[in-house]
Write a sequence for this structure.
């Protein structure tokens, strides 16, 4: 069986839902993972924040605006009168629930319950729409099998056995529809896999059923070799290995949730990135095969903070790095890049919520410099560090002020840390010289 995931735009309008229907209705049994309709999760985040600030009236107005949008969609999507009644009733119930949340005292659990409504709505509506069109489909409620543990990682054992069970007790269907993003945590409360988490749901489900393939359908022809928002003329990459895709997703390629390939990498289940607006296009195939070497793609991640930790003697003083890392660990902050010299170590983090405490502890034995507004530009390709063209990178970047460089941490990745204000210029230069083959 294959697992197909469709993002918010793919279910964002009645016409797009029709497109999805023609893609999935090919006679093959499959599990379809859906996001919320585009714009819904952002609206729900907004509603939750209004409630948390005590702005009840504004929250109610936004709930009402969103409700009106759904009423319009239901009217257009469901023509069959008895089905329309069922769907309208479900939509009303979900919005009643949101209205009740306005009166509850706010907590993380309430926020997660609010965010979960988007996927509950899109899957219910889409399933009924398929049934109206004569497709044999059934819902698999994600909250019946998607589980995360105490450290918010998917609990793959529990997911596998619960999903087996749910599939056994669900009436036989050609298409099973489930919610992306949402899950229960180890306390049994509603939680989620973070923004964009439906991709992750798809590969978690793919691993649980040992799928023959996982397909992630978006509105672009696969992963591009540079960021199409900032660089013109980017091209889709036809093949990527799991390692290459993992590096790109983590370091900024927006098309995939950073964790997406992890669940399927071990079993080598291929992941195909496809375009709902252009189904025949090849897209990107992520698999265990390494096709060609050299620089394949560039991605950039913003919001990075660099910390330089200086101490009289560092490398000779054994135990120094351990002390540094323990401080980050104790403050639940992960480190992305790291470079060292005899007197200093520089490292980067993408979550600075505990930076104050970290600095305070580091300052007890070293001098600290902090640079904010940094970006990591990541170049990815199989054996990139050995490739004969990689030297060009340094010639191209002679005009860019590189704050840190990580070369050889993995054979597939070279990362540069630069000021965010230089990012677009750097991405464009790299594109021109590395992919458009301008002679240096
Ligand atoms: N609806 C969620 C979000 O917007 C999850 C997803 O779409 O992947 O982040």
């Amino acid at each position: 069986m294959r697992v197909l995931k469709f993002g918010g735009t793919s279910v964002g309008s009645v016409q797009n839902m029709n497109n999805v229907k023609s893609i999935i209705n090919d006679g093959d049994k499959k599990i379809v993972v859906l996001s919320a309709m585009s714009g819904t999760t952002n609206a729900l985040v907004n509603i939750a924040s209004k409630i948390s600030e005590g702005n009840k009236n504004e929250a109610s107005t936004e709930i009402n605006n969103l409700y009106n949008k759904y009423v319009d969609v239901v009217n257009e999507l469901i023509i069959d009168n008895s089905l329309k009644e069922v769907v309208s009733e479900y939509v009303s119930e979900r919005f009643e629930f949101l209205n009740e949340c306005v009166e509850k005292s706010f907590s993380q659990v309430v926020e997660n319950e609010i965010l979960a409504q988007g996927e509950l709505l899109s899957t219910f509506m889409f399933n009924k729409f398929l049934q109206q069109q004569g497709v044999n489909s059934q819902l698999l409620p994600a909250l019946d099998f998607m589980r995360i543990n105490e450290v918010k990682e998917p609990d793959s054992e529990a997911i596998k056995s619960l999903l087996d069970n749910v599939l056994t007790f669900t009436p036989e269907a050609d298409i099973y529809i489930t919610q992306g993003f949402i899950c229960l945590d180890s306390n049994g409360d509603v939680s989620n896999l973070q923004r964009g988490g439906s991709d992750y749901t798809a590969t978690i489900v793919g691993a649980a059923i040992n799928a023959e393939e996982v397909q992630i359908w978006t509105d672009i022809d696969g992963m591009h070799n540079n960021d199409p928002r900032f660089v013109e003329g980017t091209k889709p990459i036809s093949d990527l290995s799991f390692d290459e895709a993992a590096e790109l997703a983590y370091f900024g390629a927006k098309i995939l949730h950073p964790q997406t390939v992890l669940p399927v990498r071990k079993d080598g289940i291929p992941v195909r990135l496809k375009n709902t607006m252009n189904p025949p296009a090849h897209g990107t195939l992520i698999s265990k095969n390494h096709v060609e070497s050299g620089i394949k793609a560039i991605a950039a991640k913003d919001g990075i903070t660099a910390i330089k930790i200086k101490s009289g003697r560092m490398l000779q003083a054994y135990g120094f790095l351990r002390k540094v890392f323990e401080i980050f660990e104790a403050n639940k902050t992960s480190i992305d890049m790291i470079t060292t010299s005899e007197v200093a170590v520089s490292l980067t983090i993408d979550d600075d919520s505990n930076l104050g405490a970290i600095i305070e502890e580091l300052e007890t034995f070293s001098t600290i410099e902090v640079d904010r507004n940094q970006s990591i530009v990541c170049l990815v390709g199989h054996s990139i560090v050995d490739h004969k063209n990689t030297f060009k990178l340094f010639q191209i970047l002679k005009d860019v002020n590189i704050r840190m460089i990580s070369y050889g941490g993995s054979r597939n990745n070279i990362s540069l840390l630069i000021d965010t204000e230089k990012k677009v210029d750097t991405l464009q230069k790299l594109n021109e010289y590395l992919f458009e083959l301008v002679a240096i």
